[in-house]
Amino acid sequence: MEENKNNRLICLGLEGTAEKTGIGIITDDGEVLFNKTIIYKPPLQGINPREAADHHAETFIKLLKEAFNVIDPKDIDLVSFSQGPGLGPSLRVSATAARALALSLNKPIIGVNHCVGHVEIGKLTTPAKDPLTLYVSGGNTQILAYVGDKYRVIGETHDIAIGNCLDQFARSCGLPHPGGVYIEQMAKKSEAKDENYLKLPYTIKGMDLSLSGLLTAAIKKSKELNKTDKSNETYTLEDVCYSLQETAFAMLTEITERALAHANKSEVMLVGGVAANDRLKEMLQKMCEEQNVEFYVPEKQFCGDNGAMIGWLGILQYKNGKITKMGDTKIMPNYRADMVNVNWIKHDDLSKNRRIIPKNLIGKGAEADIEILDYLGNKSIKKTRIAKTYRVNKLDNLIRQRRTVKEARFLNTVKNLEINTPVIYDVNKDENSIIMEFIEGMSLKDYILKHYAKNCSNNNNNNTKNNLKDLLNKVGESIAKMHNENIIHNDLTTSNFMVDTYNKLYLLDFGLAKYTDVFEDKAIDLIVLKKALVSTHYKEFDEIWNYILEGYKISKEYGKTLKMIDKVEKKGRYL
Protein backbone atom coordinates (compact mmCIF):
# COMPACT_ATOMS: atom_id res chain seq x y z
CA MET A 1 0.00 0.00 0.00
CA GLU A 2 1.26 3.44 -0.86
CA GLU A 3 1.60 5.83 2.04
CA ASN A 4 0.08 9.31 1.94
CA LYS A 5 2.10 12.39 1.13
CA ASN A 6 3.14 12.98 4.75
CA ASN A 7 4.41 9.40 5.06
CA ARG A 8 1.91 8.81 7.83
CA LEU A 9 -0.72 6.10 8.06
CA ILE A 10 -4.17 7.65 8.48
CA CYS A 11 -7.17 5.71 9.78
CA LEU A 12 -10.83 6.67 9.85
CA GLY A 13 -12.65 5.10 12.81
CA LEU A 14 -16.40 4.64 13.15
CA GLU A 15 -17.93 4.25 16.60
CA GLY A 16 -21.55 3.22 17.04
CA THR A 17 -22.09 0.58 19.70
CA ALA A 18 -25.01 2.11 21.58
CA GLU A 19 -26.45 5.64 21.53
CA LYS A 20 -23.32 7.60 20.59
CA THR A 21 -22.22 8.09 16.99
CA GLY A 22 -18.58 8.98 16.49
CA ILE A 23 -16.14 9.58 13.65
CA GLY A 24 -12.44 9.94 14.29
CA ILE A 25 -9.45 10.41 12.02
CA ILE A 26 -6.04 9.70 13.52
CA THR A 27 -2.48 9.16 12.29
CA ASP A 28 -0.06 6.42 13.24
CA ASP A 29 2.00 8.92 15.24
CA GLY A 30 -1.05 9.65 17.40
CA GLU A 31 -2.19 12.98 15.97
CA VAL A 32 -5.98 13.33 16.08
CA LEU A 33 -7.07 15.14 12.92
CA PHE A 34 -10.81 14.92 13.57
CA ASN A 35 -12.89 13.57 16.43
CA LYS A 36 -16.56 14.27 16.96
CA THR A 37 -19.31 12.36 18.75
CA ILE A 38 -23.04 13.04 18.74
CA ILE A 39 -25.27 11.44 21.35
CA TYR A 40 -28.77 10.22 20.67
CA LYS A 41 -31.15 11.58 23.28
CA PRO A 42 -34.49 9.77 23.15
CA PRO A 43 -37.66 11.89 23.33
CA LEU A 44 -38.88 9.55 26.05
CA GLN A 45 -36.79 7.79 28.64
CA GLY A 46 -34.58 4.85 27.76
CA ILE A 47 -32.76 3.87 24.58
CA ASN A 48 -34.68 2.03 21.90
CA PRO A 49 -32.04 0.05 19.95
CA ARG A 50 -33.76 0.55 16.60
CA GLU A 51 -34.14 4.27 17.13
CA ALA A 52 -30.46 4.47 18.12
CA ALA A 53 -29.56 2.61 14.91
CA ASP A 54 -31.60 5.09 12.86
CA HIS A 55 -29.71 7.89 14.60
CA HIS A 56 -26.39 6.31 13.57
CA ALA A 57 -27.50 6.01 9.95
CA GLU A 58 -28.38 9.70 9.80
CA THR A 59 -25.49 10.99 11.87
CA PHE A 60 -22.68 9.05 10.17
CA ILE A 61 -23.47 10.89 6.94
CA LYS A 62 -23.35 14.29 8.65
CA LEU A 63 -20.12 13.52 10.48
CA LEU A 64 -18.41 12.11 7.41
CA LYS A 65 -19.17 15.31 5.51
CA GLU A 66 -17.56 17.31 8.32
CA ALA A 67 -14.57 14.97 8.47
CA PHE A 68 -13.95 15.19 4.74
CA ASN A 69 -13.77 18.95 5.05
CA VAL A 70 -10.69 18.35 7.20
CA ILE A 71 -9.00 15.70 5.07
CA ASP A 72 -9.30 14.51 1.50
CA PRO A 73 -10.90 11.03 1.42
CA LYS A 74 -8.11 9.79 -0.84
CA ASP A 75 -5.64 10.35 2.04
CA ILE A 76 -7.43 7.78 4.19
CA ASP A 77 -5.37 4.57 4.37
CA LEU A 78 -7.55 2.43 6.62
CA VAL A 79 -11.14 2.16 7.83
CA SER A 80 -11.85 0.68 11.25
CA PHE A 81 -15.10 0.13 13.13
CA SER A 82 -16.42 -1.18 16.45
CA GLN A 83 -17.20 -4.85 15.87
CA GLY A 84 -18.51 -5.23 19.42
CA PRO A 85 -19.59 -5.45 22.14
CA GLY A 86 -22.77 -3.43 21.91
CA LEU A 87 -26.36 -3.26 20.74
CA GLY A 88 -26.96 -5.39 17.65
CA PRO A 89 -28.86 -2.79 15.57
CA SER A 90 -26.27 -0.09 16.31
CA LEU A 91 -23.35 -2.39 15.50
CA ARG A 92 -24.93 -3.41 12.18
CA VAL A 93 -25.24 0.21 11.03
CA SER A 94 -21.61 0.92 11.98
CA ALA A 95 -20.36 -2.20 10.22
CA THR A 96 -22.36 -1.45 7.09
CA ALA A 97 -21.04 2.11 6.95
CA ALA A 98 -17.46 0.87 7.42
CA ARG A 99 -17.80 -1.74 4.68
CA ALA A 100 -19.23 0.84 2.26
CA LEU A 101 -16.38 3.26 2.98
CA ALA A 102 -13.66 0.62 2.69
CA LEU A 103 -15.02 -0.65 -0.61
CA SER A 104 -15.58 2.81 -2.10
CA LEU A 105 -12.10 3.99 -1.06
CA ASN A 106 -10.53 0.62 -1.89
CA LYS A 107 -8.85 0.51 1.55
CA PRO A 108 -8.36 -2.23 4.16
CA ILE A 109 -11.03 -2.64 6.83
CA ILE A 110 -10.28 -3.42 10.48
CA GLY A 111 -12.86 -4.65 12.99
CA VAL A 112 -11.87 -3.79 16.57
CA ASN A 113 -13.01 -4.43 20.12
CA HIS A 114 -14.72 -1.39 21.61
CA CYS A 115 -13.46 -2.05 25.16
CA VAL A 116 -9.84 -2.46 24.09
CA GLY A 117 -10.20 0.77 22.11
CA HIS A 118 -10.92 2.66 25.33
CA VAL A 119 -7.78 1.28 26.95
CA GLU A 120 -5.51 2.03 24.00
CA ILE A 121 -6.69 5.60 23.46
CA GLY A 122 -6.17 6.15 27.19
CA LYS A 123 -2.60 4.90 26.95
CA LEU A 124 -2.00 7.08 23.90
CA THR A 125 -3.27 10.28 25.53
CA THR A 126 -1.86 9.79 29.05
CA PRO A 127 1.58 8.74 30.36
CA ALA A 128 0.19 5.31 31.33
CA LYS A 129 2.25 2.36 30.06
CA ASP A 130 0.92 -0.73 31.81
CA PRO A 131 -2.12 0.34 33.81
CA LEU A 132 -4.80 -1.47 35.69
CA THR A 133 -7.83 -0.06 33.89
CA LEU A 134 -11.27 0.62 35.35
CA TYR A 135 -13.64 0.80 32.40
CA VAL A 136 -17.04 2.22 33.30
CA SER A 137 -19.83 3.09 30.89
CA GLY A 138 -23.51 2.54 30.18
CA GLY A 139 -22.92 -1.00 28.98
CA ASN A 140 -19.65 -2.05 30.62
CA THR A 141 -18.13 -2.22 34.07
CA GLN A 142 -14.81 -4.04 34.02
CA ILE A 143 -11.34 -4.02 35.50
CA LEU A 144 -8.79 -4.89 32.81
CA ALA A 145 -5.09 -5.71 33.07
CA TYR A 146 -2.64 -6.71 30.36
CA VAL A 147 -1.39 -10.19 31.22
CA GLY A 148 -0.01 -12.72 28.76
CA ASP A 149 -0.89 -11.11 25.41
CA LYS A 150 -4.46 -10.27 26.43
CA TYR A 151 -6.38 -7.71 28.40
CA ARG A 152 -7.72 -9.95 31.14
CA VAL A 153 -11.02 -9.14 32.83
CA ILE A 154 -10.05 -9.54 36.48
CA GLY A 155 -13.05 -7.71 37.92
CA GLU A 156 -16.53 -6.92 36.64
CA THR A 157 -20.18 -6.46 37.48
CA HIS A 158 -22.30 -9.54 38.14
CA ASP A 159 -25.44 -7.93 36.79
CA ILE A 160 -25.80 -4.41 35.38
CA ALA A 161 -23.19 -1.85 34.37
CA ILE A 162 -22.70 1.31 36.42
CA GLY A 163 -23.92 3.57 33.62
CA ASN A 164 -27.03 1.46 33.19
CA CYS A 165 -27.61 1.58 36.94
CA LEU A 166 -27.47 5.37 36.97
CA ASP A 167 -29.63 5.67 33.86
CA GLN A 168 -32.31 3.36 35.25
CA PHE A 169 -32.43 5.27 38.51
CA ALA A 170 -32.68 8.57 36.65
CA ARG A 171 -35.55 7.25 34.51
CA SER A 172 -37.43 6.11 37.60
CA CYS A 173 -37.15 9.65 38.99
CA GLY A 174 -38.05 11.44 35.76
CA LEU A 175 -34.53 12.75 35.16
CA PRO A 176 -33.29 13.20 31.55
CA HIS A 177 -30.87 10.94 29.67
CA PRO A 178 -27.97 10.42 30.20
CA GLY A 179 -28.87 9.94 33.84
CA GLY A 180 -25.37 9.98 35.29
CA VAL A 181 -24.85 13.65 34.43
CA TYR A 182 -28.02 14.76 36.20
CA ILE A 183 -27.45 12.49 39.21
CA GLU A 184 -24.00 14.05 39.61
CA GLN A 185 -25.51 17.55 39.48
CA MET A 186 -28.16 16.70 42.06
CA ALA A 187 -25.65 14.94 44.32
CA LYS A 188 -23.62 18.16 44.47
CA LYS A 189 -26.73 19.99 45.70
CA SER A 190 -27.40 17.51 48.50
CA GLU A 191 -27.12 18.73 52.05
CA ALA A 192 -26.95 15.17 53.38
CA LYS A 193 -23.17 14.76 53.16
CA ASP A 194 -21.62 12.40 55.68
CA GLU A 195 -23.90 12.72 58.68
CA ASN A 196 -27.10 12.00 56.76
CA TYR A 197 -25.74 9.52 54.23
CA LEU A 198 -28.54 7.07 53.45
CA LYS A 199 -27.58 3.45 53.98
CA LEU A 200 -27.78 1.44 50.74
CA PRO A 201 -26.61 -2.09 49.77
CA TYR A 202 -22.84 -2.38 49.33
CA THR A 203 -22.07 -5.66 47.54
CA ILE A 204 -18.46 -6.67 46.87
CA LYS A 205 -17.39 -10.16 45.83
CA GLY A 206 -13.62 -10.30 45.60
CA MET A 207 -12.72 -8.07 42.65
CA ASP A 208 -16.31 -8.12 41.39
CA LEU A 209 -19.40 -6.21 42.44
CA SER A 210 -23.16 -6.29 42.11
CA LEU A 211 -25.26 -3.20 41.44
CA SER A 212 -28.83 -4.47 41.01
CA GLY A 213 -29.61 -4.51 44.74
CA LEU A 214 -28.23 -1.00 45.12
CA LEU A 215 -30.40 0.22 42.25
CA THR A 216 -33.56 -1.34 43.66
CA ALA A 217 -32.93 0.13 47.12
CA ALA A 218 -32.18 3.60 45.73
CA ILE A 219 -35.36 3.59 43.65
CA LYS A 220 -37.34 2.57 46.74
CA LYS A 221 -35.79 5.44 48.70
CA SER A 222 -36.68 7.88 45.93
CA LYS A 223 -40.34 6.83 46.17
CA GLU A 224 -40.43 7.54 49.90
CA LEU A 225 -39.31 11.16 49.91
CA ASN A 226 -42.29 12.28 51.96
CA LYS A 227 -41.57 9.68 54.62
CA THR A 228 -38.87 9.64 57.26
CA ASP A 229 -36.01 7.20 57.52
CA LYS A 230 -35.12 5.18 60.62
CA SER A 231 -33.58 8.25 62.20
CA ASN A 232 -36.93 10.06 61.77
CA GLU A 233 -35.36 12.64 59.44
CA THR A 234 -36.73 13.52 56.05
CA TYR A 235 -34.51 13.43 52.99
CA THR A 236 -34.63 14.81 49.47
CA LEU A 237 -34.09 13.35 46.01
CA GLU A 238 -30.74 15.14 46.02
CA ASP A 239 -29.81 13.16 49.14
CA VAL A 240 -30.74 9.88 47.45
CA CYS A 241 -28.66 10.83 44.39
CA TYR A 242 -25.76 11.68 46.69
CA SER A 243 -26.00 8.39 48.59
CA LEU A 244 -26.39 6.32 45.42
CA GLN A 245 -23.35 7.93 43.85
CA GLU A 246 -21.24 7.64 47.01
CA THR A 247 -22.10 3.95 47.43
CA ALA A 248 -21.67 2.91 43.80
CA PHE A 249 -18.40 4.77 43.31
CA ALA A 250 -16.97 3.55 46.62
CA MET A 251 -17.67 -0.01 45.45
CA LEU A 252 -15.95 0.67 42.13
CA THR A 253 -12.95 2.19 43.89
CA GLU A 254 -12.69 -0.71 46.32
CA ILE A 255 -12.70 -3.44 43.67
CA THR A 256 -10.09 -1.45 41.75
CA GLU A 257 -7.97 -1.31 44.89
CA ARG A 258 -8.41 -5.05 45.41
CA ALA A 259 -7.40 -5.78 41.82
CA LEU A 260 -4.44 -3.45 42.20
CA ALA A 261 -3.18 -5.34 45.24
CA HIS A 262 -3.54 -8.69 43.45
CA ALA A 263 -2.11 -7.63 40.06
CA ASN A 264 0.60 -5.46 41.68
CA LYS A 265 0.49 -2.76 39.00
CA SER A 266 1.94 0.71 39.53
CA GLU A 267 -0.65 2.62 37.49
CA VAL A 268 -4.44 2.94 37.48
CA MET A 269 -6.34 4.37 34.54
CA LEU A 270 -10.01 5.34 34.37
CA VAL A 271 -11.83 5.19 31.02
CA GLY A 272 -15.39 5.11 29.67
CA GLY A 273 -18.30 7.52 29.70
CA VAL A 274 -18.73 7.46 33.49
CA ALA A 275 -15.06 8.50 33.78
CA ALA A 276 -16.25 12.07 33.25
CA ASN A 277 -17.72 12.08 36.76
CA ASP A 278 -15.69 14.35 39.05
CA ARG A 279 -16.53 12.47 42.25
CA LEU A 280 -15.43 9.11 40.84
CA LYS A 281 -12.14 10.63 39.70
CA GLU A 282 -11.64 12.17 43.13
CA MET A 283 -12.20 8.82 44.87
CA LEU A 284 -9.78 6.96 42.62
CA GLN A 285 -7.16 9.68 42.96
CA LYS A 286 -7.31 9.38 46.77
CA MET A 287 -7.06 5.60 46.62
CA CYS A 288 -4.06 5.75 44.31
CA GLU A 289 -2.29 8.22 46.57
CA GLU A 290 -2.81 5.87 49.52
CA GLN A 291 -1.48 2.93 47.49
CA ASN A 292 1.53 4.89 46.13
CA VAL A 293 0.58 4.39 42.47
CA GLU A 294 -0.04 6.77 39.58
CA PHE A 295 -3.56 7.67 38.46
CA TYR A 296 -4.47 8.65 34.92
CA VAL A 297 -7.67 9.64 33.14
CA PRO A 298 -7.87 10.81 29.50
CA GLU A 299 -9.32 14.17 28.63
CA LYS A 300 -13.09 14.21 28.36
CA GLN A 301 -13.37 13.78 24.57
CA PHE A 302 -11.51 10.45 24.87
CA CYS A 303 -13.34 9.14 27.94
CA GLY A 304 -16.69 8.44 26.33
CA ASP A 305 -17.27 6.54 23.10
CA ASN A 306 -15.43 8.19 20.22
CA GLY A 307 -14.16 7.43 16.74
CA ALA A 308 -10.54 8.33 17.48
CA MET A 309 -10.14 5.34 19.79
CA ILE A 310 -11.50 3.04 17.12
CA GLY A 311 -9.15 4.55 14.53
CA TRP A 312 -6.14 4.25 16.85
CA LEU A 313 -6.81 0.60 17.65
CA GLY A 314 -7.31 -0.03 13.94
CA ILE A 315 -3.81 1.35 13.29
CA LEU A 316 -2.26 -0.76 16.06
CA GLN A 317 -3.85 -3.92 14.69
CA TYR A 318 -3.05 -3.15 11.05
CA LYS A 319 0.62 -2.43 11.75
CA ASN A 320 0.86 -5.78 13.51
CA GLY A 321 -0.74 -7.83 10.76
CA LYS A 322 -4.32 -7.94 12.03
CA ILE A 323 -6.41 -7.13 8.94
CA THR A 324 -10.07 -8.12 8.82
CA LYS A 325 -11.31 -9.92 5.72
CA MET A 326 -14.56 -8.49 4.41
CA GLY A 327 -16.25 -11.82 5.08
CA ASP A 328 -15.17 -11.63 8.73
CA THR A 329 -16.67 -8.22 9.46
CA LYS A 330 -19.86 -9.55 11.01
CA ILE A 331 -20.79 -7.90 14.27
CA MET A 332 -20.02 -9.46 17.67
CA PRO A 333 -22.46 -8.09 20.31
CA ASN A 334 -20.79 -10.19 23.06
CA TYR A 335 -17.18 -9.48 22.07
CA ARG A 336 -15.18 -9.65 25.32
CA ALA A 337 -11.93 -7.76 25.71
CA ASP A 338 -10.19 -10.97 26.74
CA MET A 339 -11.07 -12.55 23.39
CA VAL A 340 -8.60 -10.24 21.62
CA ASN A 341 -5.05 -11.40 20.97
CA VAL A 342 -3.02 -8.28 21.81
CA ASN A 343 0.06 -8.69 19.64
CA TRP A 344 1.02 -5.01 19.36
CA ILE A 345 2.34 -4.61 22.92
CA LYS A 346 6.07 -5.21 23.26
CA HIS A 347 7.01 -6.57 26.68
CA ASP A 348 10.11 -4.36 26.80
CA ASP A 349 7.85 -1.32 26.58
CA LEU A 350 5.91 -2.26 29.71
CA SER A 351 6.59 -0.50 32.97
CA LYS A 352 8.76 -2.56 35.31
CA ASN A 353 7.53 -0.56 38.30
CA ARG A 354 5.36 -2.13 40.96
CA ARG A 355 3.52 -0.80 43.98
CA ILE A 356 5.78 0.58 46.69
CA ILE A 357 4.90 -0.79 50.13
CA PRO A 358 5.95 1.38 53.11
CA LYS A 359 9.07 0.03 54.86
CA ASN A 360 7.30 -0.34 58.21
CA LEU A 361 4.83 -2.83 56.69
CA ILE A 362 5.24 -6.36 55.38
CA GLY A 363 2.08 -6.06 53.32
CA LYS A 364 -0.48 -3.53 52.18
CA GLY A 365 -3.69 -4.98 50.86
CA ALA A 366 -6.79 -3.28 49.53
CA GLU A 367 -8.27 -3.04 53.02
CA ALA A 368 -5.52 -3.31 55.56
CA ASP A 369 -1.95 -2.57 56.55
CA ILE A 370 0.03 -5.59 57.77
CA GLU A 371 2.92 -5.22 60.24
CA ILE A 372 5.02 -7.62 62.31
CA LEU A 373 5.08 -7.30 66.10
CA ASP A 374 5.75 -9.26 69.24
CA TYR A 375 2.62 -10.18 71.16
CA LEU A 376 3.22 -11.76 74.57
CA GLY A 377 6.41 -13.32 73.28
CA ASN A 378 4.85 -14.60 70.07
CA LYS A 379 5.92 -13.39 66.64
CA SER A 380 2.68 -12.01 65.31
CA ILE A 381 1.15 -9.83 62.67
CA LYS A 382 -1.21 -6.96 63.20
CA LYS A 383 -3.80 -6.40 60.52
CA THR A 384 -5.40 -2.97 60.69
CA ARG A 385 -8.27 -1.93 58.47
CA ILE A 386 -7.27 1.66 57.88
CA ALA A 387 -9.74 4.44 57.17
CA LYS A 388 -10.47 4.94 53.48
CA THR A 389 -10.56 8.64 52.70
CA TYR A 390 -12.42 8.02 49.45
CA ARG A 391 -15.48 6.75 51.35
CA VAL A 392 -17.76 8.93 53.46
CA ASN A 393 -16.98 8.34 57.14
CA LYS A 394 -20.35 6.88 58.00
CA LEU A 395 -20.07 4.21 55.34
CA ASP A 396 -16.37 3.57 55.89
CA ASN A 397 -16.68 3.08 59.64
CA LEU A 398 -19.54 0.65 59.20
CA ILE A 399 -17.67 -1.43 56.61
CA ARG A 400 -14.41 -1.62 58.56
CA GLN A 401 -16.08 -2.54 61.85
CA ARG A 402 -18.27 -5.22 60.34
CA ARG A 403 -15.49 -6.82 58.34
CA THR A 404 -13.10 -6.88 61.28
CA VAL A 405 -15.60 -8.71 63.47
CA LYS A 406 -16.66 -10.99 60.63
CA GLU A 407 -13.10 -11.95 59.80
CA ALA A 408 -12.29 -12.89 63.39
CA ARG A 409 -15.46 -14.94 63.67
CA PHE A 410 -14.97 -16.91 60.45
CA LEU A 411 -11.24 -17.49 61.05
CA ASN A 412 -12.27 -19.41 64.14
CA THR A 413 -15.41 -21.02 62.69
CA VAL A 414 -13.69 -22.73 59.76
CA LYS A 415 -11.12 -24.31 62.07
CA ASN A 416 -13.93 -26.66 63.06
CA LEU A 417 -14.02 -27.78 59.41
CA GLU A 418 -10.35 -28.76 59.57
CA ILE A 419 -9.31 -25.74 57.53
CA ASN A 420 -6.06 -24.15 58.66
CA THR A 421 -6.23 -20.47 59.63
CA PRO A 422 -3.95 -18.30 61.80
CA VAL A 423 -4.53 -18.28 65.55
CA ILE A 424 -6.15 -15.04 66.72
CA TYR A 425 -4.57 -13.36 69.75
CA ASP A 426 -6.55 -10.14 70.00
CA VAL A 427 -9.34 -8.19 68.28
CA ASN A 428 -9.59 -4.42 68.76
CA LYS A 429 -12.92 -3.16 67.44
CA ASP A 430 -12.06 0.46 68.25
CA GLU A 431 -9.13 0.53 65.81
CA ASN A 432 -10.48 -2.25 63.56
CA SER A 433 -7.43 -4.43 64.02
CA ILE A 434 -6.67 -8.11 64.58
CA ILE A 435 -3.46 -9.52 66.03
CA MET A 436 -2.86 -13.06 64.84
CA GLU A 437 -0.28 -15.77 64.45
CA PHE A 438 2.58 -15.08 62.04
CA ILE A 439 2.76 -17.72 59.30
CA GLU A 440 6.30 -18.26 58.04
CA GLY A 441 6.00 -18.88 54.31
CA MET A 442 4.60 -17.28 51.18
CA SER A 443 1.30 -16.66 49.42
CA LEU A 444 -0.02 -19.41 47.17
CA LYS A 445 0.30 -16.90 44.32
CA ASP A 446 4.06 -16.61 44.89
CA TYR A 447 4.38 -20.34 45.52
CA ILE A 448 2.83 -21.12 42.13
CA LEU A 449 4.95 -18.53 40.36
CA LYS A 450 8.11 -19.80 41.99
CA HIS A 451 7.61 -23.54 42.08
CA TYR A 452 5.20 -24.22 39.24
CA ALA A 453 6.38 -21.86 36.53
CA LYS A 454 10.05 -22.71 37.04
CA ASN A 455 10.40 -26.11 38.66
CA CYS A 456 7.41 -27.96 37.25
CA SER A 457 8.64 -27.38 33.71
CA ASN A 458 11.47 -29.71 34.68
CA ASN A 459 10.19 -33.24 34.19
CA ASN A 460 12.75 -34.54 36.68
CA ASN A 461 11.25 -32.51 39.50
CA ASN A 462 8.26 -34.77 40.23
CA ASN A 463 8.32 -34.05 43.96
CA THR A 464 7.73 -30.34 43.40
CA LYS A 465 4.91 -31.05 41.00
CA ASN A 466 3.30 -33.52 43.39
CA ASN A 467 3.57 -31.02 46.24
CA LEU A 468 1.81 -28.40 44.19
CA LYS A 469 -0.88 -30.85 43.09
CA ASP A 470 -1.53 -31.77 46.72
CA LEU A 471 -1.75 -28.11 47.73
CA LEU A 472 -4.18 -27.27 44.93
CA ASN A 473 -6.28 -30.33 45.81
CA LYS A 474 -6.44 -28.95 49.37
CA VAL A 475 -7.55 -25.57 48.02
CA GLY A 476 -10.52 -27.30 46.38
CA GLU A 477 -11.20 -29.39 49.49
CA SER A 478 -11.17 -26.31 51.74
CA ILE A 479 -13.67 -24.50 49.52
CA ALA A 480 -15.90 -27.59 49.36
CA LYS A 481 -15.88 -27.94 53.16
CA MET A 482 -17.04 -24.34 53.52
CA HIS A 483 -19.69 -24.67 50.83
CA ASN A 484 -21.03 -27.84 52.43
CA GLU A 485 -21.70 -25.72 55.53
CA ASN A 486 -23.15 -22.83 53.47
CA ILE A 487 -20.12 -20.60 54.09
CA ILE A 488 -18.98 -18.38 51.22
CA HIS A 489 -15.52 -16.80 51.40
CA ASN A 490 -16.31 -14.15 48.75
CA ASP A 491 -12.67 -13.21 48.16
CA LEU A 492 -10.95 -16.37 46.94
CA THR A 493 -7.65 -15.48 45.28
CA THR A 494 -4.23 -17.08 45.39
CA SER A 495 -3.17 -14.05 47.45
CA ASN A 496 -5.49 -15.17 50.27
CA PHE A 497 -3.96 -18.63 50.67
CA MET A 498 -0.63 -19.06 52.48
CA VAL A 499 1.83 -21.96 52.25
CA ASP A 500 4.10 -22.33 55.27
CA THR A 501 7.62 -23.75 55.30
CA TYR A 502 6.18 -27.25 55.87
CA ASN A 503 3.86 -26.97 52.83
CA LYS A 504 0.86 -26.55 55.07
CA LEU A 505 -1.98 -24.57 53.49
CA TYR A 506 -3.70 -21.69 55.33
CA LEU A 507 -6.77 -19.71 54.28
CA LEU A 508 -6.89 -16.00 55.12
CA ASP A 509 -8.98 -12.82 54.88
CA PHE A 510 -12.60 -13.64 55.69
CA GLY A 511 -13.76 -10.02 55.77
CA LEU A 512 -16.30 -10.58 52.99
CA ALA A 513 -17.40 -14.05 54.11
CA LYS A 514 -21.04 -14.87 54.82
CA TYR A 515 -23.52 -17.65 55.40
CA THR A 516 -25.82 -18.35 52.47
CA ASP A 517 -27.68 -21.27 50.96
CA VAL A 518 -28.06 -19.47 47.62
CA PHE A 519 -26.59 -21.92 45.18
CA GLU A 520 -25.42 -19.31 42.69
CA ASP A 521 -23.30 -17.66 45.38
CA LYS A 522 -21.23 -20.83 45.70
CA ALA A 523 -20.64 -20.86 41.95
CA ILE A 524 -19.63 -17.19 42.00
CA ASP A 525 -17.22 -17.93 44.87
CA LEU A 526 -15.36 -20.29 42.52
CA ILE A 527 -15.66 -17.95 39.55
CA VAL A 528 -13.90 -15.21 41.56
CA LEU A 529 -11.02 -17.63 42.15
CA LYS A 530 -11.04 -18.72 38.52
CA LYS A 531 -10.61 -15.14 37.28
CA ALA A 532 -7.87 -14.48 39.82
CA LEU A 533 -6.01 -17.55 38.51
CA VAL A 534 -6.34 -16.46 34.88
CA SER A 535 -5.05 -12.98 35.73
CA THR A 536 -1.76 -14.24 37.17
CA HIS A 537 -1.29 -17.90 36.19
CA TYR A 538 -2.74 -17.95 32.69
CA LYS A 539 -0.10 -20.28 31.23
CA GLU A 540 -0.77 -23.02 33.74
CA PHE A 541 -4.43 -22.22 34.35
CA ASP A 542 -6.01 -25.39 32.94
CA GLU A 543 -3.87 -27.72 35.01
CA ILE A 544 -4.18 -25.62 38.18
CA TRP A 545 -7.96 -25.35 37.83
CA ASN A 546 -8.34 -29.09 37.25
CA TYR A 547 -6.31 -29.83 40.40
CA ILE A 548 -8.55 -27.50 42.42
CA LEU A 549 -11.73 -29.05 41.02
CA GLU A 550 -10.35 -32.49 41.80
CA GLY A 551 -10.21 -31.48 45.46
CA TYR A 552 -13.63 -29.81 45.25
CA LYS A 553 -15.23 -33.16 44.43
CA ILE A 554 -15.94 -33.69 48.12
CA SER A 555 -18.62 -30.98 47.73
CA LYS A 556 -22.11 -32.37 48.28
CA GLU A 557 -23.24 -30.55 45.14
CA TYR A 558 -20.16 -30.86 42.95
CA GLY A 559 -21.92 -31.52 39.64
CA LYS A 560 -24.60 -28.88 40.16
CA THR A 561 -21.99 -26.29 41.12
CA LEU A 562 -19.97 -26.86 37.94
CA LYS A 563 -23.11 -26.56 35.82
CA MET A 564 -24.00 -23.33 37.62
CA ILE A 565 -20.51 -21.93 36.97
CA ASP A 566 -21.00 -22.57 33.27
CA LYS A 567 -24.47 -21.01 33.35
CA VAL A 568 -23.29 -17.87 35.15
CA GLU A 569 -20.33 -17.38 32.82
CA LYS A 570 -22.58 -17.72 29.76
CA LYS A 571 -24.78 -14.86 30.92
CA GLY A 572 -22.22 -12.44 29.52
CA ARG A 573 -22.27 -10.27 32.61
CA TYR A 574 -19.37 -8.22 31.37
CA LEU A 575 -21.80 -6.09 29.34
TrEMBL record:
Entry's Gene Ontology BP terms: proteolysis; tRNA threonylcarbamoyladenosine modification
Free-text remark on how the cofactor is bound: Binds 1 Fe(2+) ion per subunit.
Record-listed L-threonylcarbamoyladenylate binding positions: 135-139, 167, 180, 184, 277
Main location group: cytoplasm
CDD domains: ASKHA_NBD_Kae1_arch_bac
Domain Protein kinase: 356-575
Localization of this protein: Cytoplasm
GO molecular function: ATP binding; iron ion binding; metalloendopeptidase activity; protein serine kinase activity; protein serine/threonine kinase activity; protein serine/threonine/tyrosine kinase activity; tRNA N(6)-L-threonylcarbamoyladenine synthase activity; zinc ion binding
InterPro entries attached to this UniProt entry: ATPase_NBD (IPR043129), Bud32 (IPR022495), Gcp-like_dom (IPR000905), KAE1/TsaD (IPR017861), Kae1_archaea_euk (IPR034680), Kinase-like_dom_sf (IPR011009), Peptidase_M22_CS (IPR017860), Prot_kinase_dom (IPR000719)
Binding locations of ATP: 362-370, 383
Gene3D superfamilies, sorted: 3.30.420.40, Phosphorylase Kinase, domain 1, Transferase(Phosphotransferase) domain 1
Catalytic activity: L-threonylcarbamoyladenylate + adenosine(37) in tRNA = N(6)-L-threonylcarbamoyladenosine(37) in tRNA + AMP + H(+); L-threonyl-[protein] + ATP = O-phospho-L-threonyl-[protein] + ADP + H(+); L-seryl-[protein] + ATP = O-phospho-L-seryl-[protein] + ADP + H(+)
Domain of life: Archaea
HAMAP family: Kae1, Kae1_Bud32_arch
Function summary: Required for the formation of a threonylcarbamoyl group on adenosine at position 37 (t(6)A37) in tRNAs that read codons beginning with adenine. Is a component of the KEOPS complex that is probably involved in the transfer of the threonylcarbamoyl moiety of threonylcarbamoyl-AMP (TC-AMP) to the N6 group of A37. The Kae1 domain likely plays a direct catalytic role in this reaction. The Bud32 domain probably displays kinase activity that regulates Kae1 function.
Record family assignment: In the N-terminal section; belongs to the KAE1 / TsaD family. In the C-terminal section; belongs to the protein kinase superfamily. Tyr protein kinase family. BUD32 subfamily.
PANTHER family per the UniProt record, alphabetical: TRNA N6-ADENOSINE THREONYLCARBAMOYLTRANSFERASE (PTHR11735)
Protein name: Probable bifunctional tRNA threonylcarbamoyladenosine biosynthesis protein
Species assigned in the record: Methanococcus voltae (strain ATCC BAA-1334 / A3)
Organism lineage string: Archaea, Methanobacteriati, Methanobacteriota, Methanomada group, Methanococci
